[in-house]
Specification:
The chain has 350 residues and is of the alpha/beta class. It is built from 14 helices and 10 strands. α5 runs parallel beside α9.
Length: 350
């Protein structure tokens, strides 16, 4: 049946904050929930979809369809987009309606960050001697501000795979999508202030642990209230669009020399990471480099669950966002354990 066939893709869209509208048919209204044994009968089709969407509605009239679609489009345009699901019973589909076509008002979006939270974040950043920035998919539109910040503070930038290319990976501050590696985790732990922008800091960003170790003070920039109150317990919370928050911080940031000048550019840390690669990993690294050389500069690469792709998350150079896509599987996917073992083996040099 159509909905169950689509669930994996819908769950992926939920995990990656992709605005996806799913419309499915359901059995006739008179049969719903009665176990008549009709074709494609489910006990509660809407409830199945609700687990992997931000909104799941079932229509029983043409007005329901209109009203549920209005709510669905609002969900797609929310500060953090999620898929929306609408089911329409088969006997409702052919019914005539007096309703006229309607254009829904555009709304949603992230609220502006509060001046007080920005001031608190700026104060921490101004005091930082070892600042480090972690940028996720929610910061993909903030590349210019991030670049100004890492250059002004002489800090480092690490991205998640979703944030890959937000600042060119050739930039001397950019460590790329390298959170799974021990050398980078040690650098994160050494930072006295970490600015995490538009990222969940989830297991699928790190792979080797469920919680990235930090000893410094944490600032979270995000639109998701749940993430702002999760296990990391940030010292400063800036609720709002990550790009707007980073622009505000970059506009009033004192330029100084410090940590990166003393400790070395990102290339030195990348060399430490790659020095631990075993022979199979070095062969995959050569393959990723060959792929980069053969794909046009603006070519887009889509990957899935392969050893080459796991290494490519780190090793494929991206000079701007949107060139490398790798799915973040929902947490129920058992293959995440294989990924965790893969990165753990590489950390040990096995």
């Amino acid at each position: 049946m159509g909905l169950t066939n689509a669930l994996t893709a819908i769950a992926q869209a939920y995990s990656d904050s992709v605005p996806l509208l799913v419309i499915a048919s359901s059995p006739v209204r008179a049969s719903l929930g009665k176990r008549w044994g009709v074709l494609h009968e489910l006990e509660d089709q809407r409830a199945i979809a609700a687990g992997v969407t931000g909104l799941a509605r079932s229509a029983h009239s043409a007005r329901d369809v209109r009203d549920h679609l209005r709510a669905a489009f609002a969900t797609l345009r929310a500060a953090r987009a999620r898929p929306a699901y609408l089911e329409i019973p088969l006997d409702l589909l052919p019914e005539p309606t007096p309703l006229r076509p309607e254009r829904f008002a555009r709304g949603g979006g992230a609220p502006p960050p509060s001046p007080a939270s920005l001031a608190a974040a700026h104060a921490l950043l101004a005091e930082a001697e070892r600042p480090l920035f972690i940028a996720g998919g929610g910061a993909r539109g903030a590349g210019a501000a991030l670049r100004r910040l890492v250059e002004a503070t002489d800090g480092y930038l690490v991205t998640t795979v979703a944030g890959k290319g937000v600042v060119a990976e050739s930039h001397p501050a950019n460590l790329g999508a390298s959170l799974p590696f021990a050398a980078i985790q040690e650098l994160v732990a050494a930072a006295d202030v970490v600015i995490a922008a538009g990222t969940e800091l989830s297991e699928t960003d790190v792979y080797t642990t469920t919680r990235l170790a930090m000893s410094g003070r944490l600032v979270r920039l995000d639109v998701d209230d749940f993430k702002l109150a999760d296990q990391f317990a940030p010292e400063v919370v800036v609720r709002g669009d990550a790009a707007a928050s980073l622009e505000a911080l970059a506009g009033d940031c004192r330029t100084r020399k410090g940590w990166r000048t003393a400790s070395g550019a990102a290339a030195a840390y990348r060399a430490r990471v790659e020095a631990q690669f075993d022979a199979p990993s070095r062969a995959r690294l050569a393959a990723v480099q060959a792929l980069r050389e053969s794909v046009p500069a603006d070519g887009v690469v889509f990957t899935d669950m392969t050893q080459l792709a796991y290494l490519g998350n780190y090793a494929f150079p991206a000079e701007r966002p949107g060139l490398w896509f790798h799915p973040r599987r929902p947490r129920a996917d058992p293959r995440r354990h294989a990924r965790r073992r893969h990165y753990a083996d590489r950390r040990r040099g096995a």
